[in-house]
Design a protein that fits this description.
- By secondary structure, the chain is mostly helical.
- The protein has two domains: 130 residues, no CATH class; 176 residues, no CATH class.
- Helix content is 60%, strand content 1%.
- The protein is built from 14 helices and two strands; from the N terminus they run E-E-H-H-H-H-H-H-H-H-H-H-H-H-H-H.
- Strand 1 and strand 2 form a beta hairpin.
- Helix 4 runs antiparallel to helix 5, helix 6 packs antiparallel against helix 8 and helix 8 packs across helix 14.
- The longest helix is centred in the first third of the chain and has 31 residues.
- It starts with 26 loop residues before the first strand and ends with a helix.
- Bound molecules: zinc ion (2 copies).
- One zinc ion binds next to helix 2.
C-alpha cells in the first residue's frame, strides 16, 4: 500500500486566493484560467508549485485541439460508431486527461470546468467507454451541487416514467435487493455497485440535512439548503420520523453492500487505511477495484464536508458498534 493523497480535502471556496486565502477580485492564472490569486505577488510566489499542474492542463488542451477538427469533420461524414476509430479514442482520452489534470489542481474553478467537460463528454459520445460517469458524483459533491446529483441519479438509474423520491428513495424491500444480487454479474443499473454507492451517499446527505435543521439557525453548518423540499417544510416531529426512516434505509443498504462487497464499509469507516491505495486502472465492473475507484473519488469529496463526517460517525455509533 502506498499513500497517494490526503483523504480529507478542504472545502472549496470560489475566488479564494490559492496562496493567502483572501477572497477579493481575483485574477486567474493566465495559462490555465482555473487558479485564483488575489494579487501579482501571490501569483508569482506560487509559480514553482503550480507550474507542473498548469502544464498538465495545457498539454491536455493542446492534445484536444490537435484532434478536434478532424474528429468533428469525420463525424459529419461517417455514420460508423466512432469508438471504432483509434483517433476518436485518443481524442476522448485527451479530454479525460484534462478532467484528471483539473481535479489535481483542486480549486472551485477547476472542478467547475471538469464538470462541464465530463457532462459534455457524456452528451457527446453515445457510449461511455472511458467510464466518465464515475466522475460525476465526485465532481458534483465537490462543487456542493447535491440537488444536481439527485437529478443525475434519477436520470441514470430510473426507467422511463419512474423516479426516485427524496426520502423514500427508492422503497426497497430486503427481498428486492437480494433478488438483484442473486443474479451473477448483475448489469441491472439499480443493482450495480456504483448505483448503491451513490444511493448511500445521497441518503446520508438527506440525513445530514436533518441534523442541520435540528440545530438553532445560528449554529447551522455549511449546508446551503436541504435537497429535499419535504425536509425544508417538516415539523420537528416529522424530522425525527424521517431521521429514523433514513437511518434504517442507510443501514439496510450498507448491510447489503457488505454482503456483496465487504470492502465498502471498511473504506467508509477507515478511509486512511483503505482509500489511499493505487488502483489497477483495468478494473472490471462489479469488482473490488470498481468499489475502490468510486469510493476514493466520492469519499474524498464527501469528507471535505464536516457535517457529513459527523453524520457518518453518528450512524456508526447508532448501528455498528
Ligand atoms: Zn493572495
Ligand atoms: Zn495555471
Amino acid at each position: 500500500m502506498r499513500a497517494r493523497q490526503d483523504v480529507s480535502p478542504r472545502s472549496l471556496i470560489r475566488d479564494q486566493c490559492r496562496v493567502c486565502n483572501r477572497i477579493e477580485s481575483p485574477r486567474l492564472c493566465t495559462l490555465c484560467n482555473v487558479v485564483p490569486y488575489c494579487c501579482r505577488d501571490c501569483m508569482l510566489g506560487d509559480r514553482s508549485e503550480h507550474r507542473r499542474f498548469c502544464r498538465k492542463i495545457n498539454d491536455a488542451r493542446v492534445a484536444i485541439c490537435d484532434t478536434e477538427g478532424k474528429i468533428q469533420s469525420r463525424l459529419q461524414e461517417d455514420t460508423e460508431n466512432p469508438w471504432r476509430w483509434p483517433s476518436f479514442h485518443r481524442y476522448m482520452e485527451a479530454r479525460r486527461s484534462e478532467i484528471d489534470a483539473l481535479i489535481a489542481v483542486d480549486t472551485y474553478e477547476a472542478y467547475k470546468r471538469a464538470w462541464h467537460q465530463a457532462k459534455d463528454m457524456l452528451l457527446f459520445s453515445k457510449e461511455d467507454v472511458l467510464g466518465i460517469h464515475y466522475y460525476i458524483p465526485f465532481l458534483l459533491i465537490r462543487l456542493r451541487k447535491e440537488q444536481r446529483l439527485f437529478d443525475y441519479l434519477n436520470w441514470y438509474a430510473c426507467r422511463p416514467g419512474e423516479s426516485i423520491r427524496e426520502l423514500d428513495l427508492p422503497e426497497y424491500t430486503k427481498k428486492d435487493i437480494f433478488d438483484w444480487f442473486d443474479v451473477d454479474n448483475n448489469t441491472e443499473t439499480r443493482g450495480s455497485l456504483y448505483f448503491f454507492t451513490l444511493l448511500i451517499l445521497l441518503k446520508t446527505k438527506f440525513l445530514i440535512d436533518i441534523y442541520d435543521l435540528e440545530r438553532p439557525p445560528e449554529e447551522r453548518g455549511d449546508i446551503a439548503k436541504p435537497v429535499s423540499r419535504r425536509l425544508r417544510n417538516a415539523s420537528a416531529r416529522d424530522l425525527q420520523r424521517f431521521k429514523e426512516h433514513l437511518s434504517f434505509q442507510i443501514c439496510l443498504l450498507h448491510d447489503l453492500r457488505n454482503f456483496k462487497n465487504p470492502y465498502f464499509w471498511q473504506a467508509f469507516t477507515q478511509p486512511n487505511r483503505f482509500l489511499n491505495v493505487e488502483i489497477n486502472p483495468n478494473w472490471q465492473q462489479g469488482s473490488f477495484e470498481e468499489a475502490q475507484f468510486v469510493l476514493q473519488k466520492t469519499h474524498r469529496a464527501w469528507n471535505a464536508i464536516p457535517e457529513a463526517r459527523a453524520a457518518v460517525q453518528d450512524l456508526q455509533r447508532r448501528r455498528w458498534q
